[in-house]
Write a structure and sequence with these properties.
five-stranded mixed β-sheet; about 210 residues; two-stranded antiparallel sheet
Length: about 210
């Protein structure tokens, strides 16, 4: 399957419209998760860090969490969160109600919703906690892949795109990834040009 230039332009236009819609909605929040592994490969995967920000970039929830078992060296090397750092942190059931309250009636955006949202819902159900009543869930990676317009003949769909690191900070940190997702939405909405982005444009002073 090959898309025409007109079809590609339509996908990009729709991704831009989605970004503008989400950025205009004060109930939009962005979440990111660092975990102990991949739920698709390990059913015991848990959350090691969770961050939720609003569309102004301010954190509504940001916390390290203690999983029910130590993390492997391989996982620690990816997100740089050590077992020592999370040893004295709360476990998911202790903060589940707070997370549900923060997400209540919000439209939740994640860069990879198939990973983040699925794992978050898995954690609520695993510990028999009431799941958040949200207004909707969107995947930014899907929209960015359409906006980028790079077709993959292998998967017969748009090629998944890596989250750009606009902040220049350490990757695989939930707060930084939330900030990068927000900047990416602003880029797709046409609110700034990446080439002209400077450190002063990224306000991390809350």
């Amino acid at each position: 399957m090959t898309l025409t230039d007109k079809q590609l332009a339509e996908f990009k236009s729709n991704a831009k419209a989605w970004s503008n819609e989400r950025l205009a909605d004060q109930n939009t929040v962005i979440i990111d998760i660092e975990s102990t592994g991949l739920l698709s490969k390990d059913p015991n995967t848990e959350i090691a860090q969770l961050c939720v920000i609003n569309i102004q970039g301010r954190p509504l929830f940001s916390m390290l969490l203690k999983p029910n078992q130590p993390m492997s060296e391989e996982v620690v090397n990816i997100h740089k969160i050590s077992n020592e750092q999370i040893q004295e942190q709360p476990m998911f059931p202790q903060v589940a109600k707070m997370i549900a309250f923060v997400l209540k009636d919000k439209h939740v955006v994640s860069y990879n919703a198939d990973f983040d949202w699925k794992l978050l819902m898995h954690m609520f159900k695993k510990y028999e906690q009431d799941t958040p009543k949200v207004a909707g869930v969107s995947c930014c990676m899907d929209r960015y892949s359409e906006w980028s317009g790079e077709w993959s003949y292998k998967k017969n769909g748009f090629k998944w795109q890596k989250l750009p690191n606009f902040t220049g900070s350490e990757a695989h940190d939930a707060f930084n990834d939330c900030q990068n997702t927000l900047k990416l939405m602003q880029k797709m909405a046409g609110l700034f040009e990446e080439e002209k982005l400077t450190a002063s444009d990224i306000d991390l002073d809350f």
